[in-house]
């Protein structure tokens, strides 16, 4: 399983990229709005930092086929690494299919069932994004969905890649990897939590104390 960073916060993207652990970025309208910056400017900056797939989502105010296609073409033209994020709707599937015909990569987002993932893949999605945290929030098992999609794609030899989205903690990450996800897209805070272990900190403190006792 590989990692994407799920943010539009450029400094976090720089930090995660410097660690060498991420190979792509996903954004969404909420994340872009949180930064309060111009979509094109932020996306351009992200493409200059990370050399991998960068998902930029069509505006939530443009959800008809024609509108999404206009935006998809504009987003794809920003940089060869751009992936157009399209919501899982009828119009979205149609746009995803048209994008595939035009050679535009897509990430079908807001997936909450295995059948939605199957349809998105059949429409030509490059990536499908099941949201596990939001399912957990309503007492449904998000990880179970990843297992099902993963098995379904393997049995049917489907090439669309599974991006575990709405990842909230390190346990989610580990379980996504075991469930067969291709990618987990995570906030920088999750990476920071994954790095830390109290025994690592204690070990460093002990090495320092022991070393100083003898060598000053
Ligand atoms: C995925 O691409 C989304 O941007 C994201 O993972 C949503 O996560 P949230 O449910 O924490 O908002």
Automatic annotation (TrEMBL):
<keyword id="KW-0570">Pentose shunt</keyword>
<dbReference type="GO" id="GO:0005975">
    <property type="term" value="P:carbohydrate metabolic process"/>
</dbReference>
<feature type="active site" description="Schiff-base intermediate with substrate">
    <location>
        <position position="85"/>
    </location>
</feature>
<dbReference type="GO" id="GO:0005737">
    <property type="term" value="C:cytoplasm"/>
</dbReference>
<keyword id="KW-0704">Schiff base</keyword>
<dbReference type="InterPro" id="IPR004731">
    <property type="entry name" value="Transaldolase_3B/F6P_aldolase"/>
</dbReference>
<dbReference type="InterPro" id="IPR018225">
    <property type="entry name" value="Transaldolase_AS"/>
</dbReference>
<dbReference type="GO" id="GO:0097023">
    <property type="term" value="F:fructose 6-phosphate aldolase activity"/>
</dbReference>
<comment type="function">
    <text>Transaldolase is important for the balance of metabolites in the pentose-phosphate pathway.</text>
</comment>
<dbReference type="GO" id="GO:0004801">
    <property type="term" value="F:transaldolase activity"/>
</dbReference>
<dbReference type="GO" id="GO:0006098">
    <property type="term" value="P:pentose-phosphate shunt"/>
</dbReference>
<comment type="similarity">
    <text>Belongs to the transaldolase family. Type 3A subfamily.</text>
</comment>
<comment type="similarity">
    <text>Belongs to the transaldolase family. Type 3B subfamily.</text>
</comment>
<keyword id="KW-0808">Transferase</keyword>
<protein>
    <recommendedName>
        <fullName>Probable transaldolase</fullName>
        <ecNumber>2.2.1.2</ecNumber>
    </recommendedName>
</protein>
<dbReference type="InterPro" id="IPR033919">
    <property type="entry name" value="TSA/FSA_arc/bac"/>
</dbReference>
<dbReference type="InterPro" id="IPR001585">
    <property type="entry name" value="TAL/FSA"/>
</dbReference>
<comment type="pathway">
    <text>Carbohydrate degradation; pentose phosphate pathway; D-glyceraldehyde 3-phosphate and beta-D-fructose 6-phosphate from D-ribose 5-phosphate and D-xylulose 5-phosphate (non-oxidative stage): step 2/3.</text>
</comment>
<keyword id="KW-0963">Cytoplasm</keyword>
<dbReference type="Pfam" id="PF00923">
    <property type="entry name" value="TAL_FSA"/>
</dbReference>
<dbReference type="InterPro" id="IPR013785">
    <property type="entry name" value="Aldolase_TIM"/>
</dbReference>
<dbReference type="GO" id="GO:0042182">
    <property type="term" value="P:ketone catabolic process"/>
</dbReference>
<dbReference type="InterPro" id="IPR022999">
    <property type="entry name" value="Transaldolase_3B"/>
</dbReference>
């Amino acid at each position: 399983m590989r990692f994407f960073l799920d943010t539009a916060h450029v400094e976090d993207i720089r930090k995660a990229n410097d660690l060498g652990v991420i190979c792509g970025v996903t954004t969404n309208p909420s994340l872009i709005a949180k930064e309060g910056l111009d979509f094109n400017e932020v996306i351009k900056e992200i493409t200059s930092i990370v050399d991998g797939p960068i998902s930029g989502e069509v505006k939530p105010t443009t959800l008809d086929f024609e509108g999404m296609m206009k935006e998809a073409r504009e987003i794809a033209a920003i940089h060869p690494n751009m992936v157009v994020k399209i919501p899982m709707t009828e119009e979205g599937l149609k746009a995803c299919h048209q994008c595939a015909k035009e050679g535009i990569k897509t990430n079908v987002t807001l997936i909450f069932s295995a059948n939605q993932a199957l349809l998105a893949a059949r429409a030509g999605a490059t990536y499908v994004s099941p949201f596990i945290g939001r399912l957990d929030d309503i007492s449904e098992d998000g990880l179970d969905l990843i297992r099902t999609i993963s098995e379904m794609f393997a049995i049917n030899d489907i090439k669309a890649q599974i991006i575990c989205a709405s990842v909230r903690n390190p346990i989610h990450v580990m379980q996504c990897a075991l469930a067969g996800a291709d990618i987990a897209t995570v906030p920088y805070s999750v990476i920071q939590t994954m790095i830390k272990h109290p025994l690592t900190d204690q070990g460093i403190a002990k090495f320092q104390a022991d070393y100083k006792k003898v060598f000053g």
